[in-house]
Design goal:
Bound molecules: ligand PMT
Helix content: 25-40%
Largest sheet: 8 strands, mixed
CATH topology of the largest domain: Rossmann fold
Strand content: 15-25%
Strand order of the largest sheet: 13-12-9-14-17-18-20-21
Radius of gyration: 24 Å
Distance between the termini: 37 Å
Shape: globular
Number of helices: 15
Length: 402
């Protein structure tokens, strides 16, 4: 996968710069062409000669000397990169990239590139935790930068905390995932629903569920990575909005229904990862209910419409089934009753699976009865497995009821 691919490795001024030597070596061994750009501070920790000896490629350190000496300039570097990786990434480079400063070769090349960008931060724990660093991180994520988070442990400054450069193996995995990206959804419009709907009782209180939106957001990002136009219809979450995705924010099941039914006529696929409330209060009080007046509160709940069952048309419909027992059996009933092409049976009783966590344990069941039991995986990987199925269903022809 690495062979004949160009990785632009940016190295910034952190004690962890020596680990970038190992990263460069692993990339070169895997067959990648590795262009290295070092900041001035990085050269205080490791010499350019070290990288040049390992990669057998030019190492750029100076914005102005570079084009004369090596016939390389930032646009050429930016254009030929299949992926840009900055490891270690200091708080300084993150701040500069977050606001678009271009005052050295690495910033210029990163600003000029159209390639995906991975940042592997490394710094003192307090610098990492500082609000401004976290704000910059959120901005960078929202702009599509992939972050390989630092790990927890003993830091060079003598402290213990989060700030160590991630394992080289984890950085390599992120690079491989990006280089291995499929572009099979180019020209397709995918609608994803995410989060748990909220059903108001009064202006203060509401009925909700435990969905964090992580599964749906991972799906939206994965579909965008594969080239789809993505509409993310989301109930309230605390997640940063994914880059380059059309967001429609809703609160209630009825609002989600309206947004889904309005957008599906243009779509090729609908994936409903949202946990839609099955019931809502029959009436939502206009002003705050006073507990003194209600020693016993009784709520009348009415059924919400089943959104995915109402969707008609020539599109692929994928539902989720959050189940704690008889997972495949219950999911199969939902698949049939809701007229779906695929259902993602989500075992919420298993550790590390379901609501709120970053991993998920799912079984994919299609309308022909084919069952694929996946191991516990990060939600981003579960998303790609689901999209593999969606992609196959979309091409060459729609293969189930709809
Ligand atoms: O958001 P996370 O914290 O990452 O958690 C992920 C998740 C557990 C919420 C997700 O993986 C999941 O399982 N989502 C579906 C939860 C659910 O509502 O399942 P259900 O069995 O009640 O619904 C079945 C399907 O019908 C779902 O696709 C649901 O979106 C849809 N539905 C349900 C009710 C309704 N009124 N209208 C619907 O369209």
């Amino acid at each position: 996968m690495m062979r004949d691919r160009t990785v632009l490795l940016g190295v910034t001024g952190s004690i962890a710069a020596y680990k970038a030597v190992d990263l460069a070596s692993r990339l070169a061994q895997d067959g990648a062409k590795v262009d290295v750009v070092m900041t001035n501070c990085a050269t205080e920790f490791v010499t350019p000669l070290t990288f040049r000896s390992i990669t057998h490629c030019q190492v750029v350190t100076d914005m102005f000397a570079a084009s004369e000496e090596h016939d390389i300039e930032h646009i050429a570097l930016a254009e030929r990169a299949d992926v840009v990786v900055i490891a270690p990434a200091t708080a300084n480079i993150m701040a500069k990239l977050a606001v678009g400063i271009a005052d050295d070769m690495l910033c210029c090349a990163t600003l000029a590139t159209k390639a995906p960008i991975i940042l592997a931060p490394a710094m003192n724990v307090h610098m990492w935790e500082k609000a401004i660093t976290q704000e910059n991180l959120t901005k960078l994520r929202a702009r599509g930068f992939k972050i390989v988070e630092p790990s927890y442990g003993a830091l060079a400054c003598g402290e213990v905390g989060k700030g160590r450069l991630a394992d080289v193996e984890d950085i390599l995995t992120a690079i491989r995932q990006i280089l291995d990206r499929k572009s099979d959804l180019i020209g397709k419009h995918v609608i994803v629903t995410a989060g748990g709907t909220q059903e108001p009782i009064d202006p203060v209180r509401l009925i909700c569920n435990r969905s964090s939106g992580k599964m749906g957001y991972a799906l939206a990002e994965a579909a965008r990575e594969r080239g789809a136009k993505v509409t993310l219809i989301t109930a309230p979450t605390t997640l940063p909005p994914p880059a380059d995705v059309e967001m429609i924010e809703v609160q209630t099941a009825l609002q989600m229904r309206e947004a889904v039914l309005r957008t599906v006529p243009e779509a090729d696929a609908l994936i409903m990862a949202a946990a839609v409330a099955d019931y809502r209060p029959a009436t939502a009080a206009k002003s705050k209910l006073k507990k003194e007046e209600f020693p016993l509160m009784q709520l009348e709940l009415i059924r919400n419409p089943d959104i995915i069952s109402e969707v008609r048309g020539n599109l692929i419909k994928v539902g989720f089934a959050a189940e704690s027992e008889n997972v495949v059996g219950n999911a199969t009933v939902k698949l049939k009753n809701k007229g779906l092409h695929l259902i993602v049976a989500n075992n919420i009783a298993e550790a590390g699976s379901g609501f709120g966590v970053d991993t998920n344990k799912v079984i994919l069941v299609d309308s022909k009865g084919k069952v694929e039991d996946l191991p516990l995986l990060p939600k981003s990987e579960v998303a790609h497995k689901i999209l593999d199925k969606v992609s196959a269903l979309l091409s060459p022809a729609i293969g189930a009821s709809g």
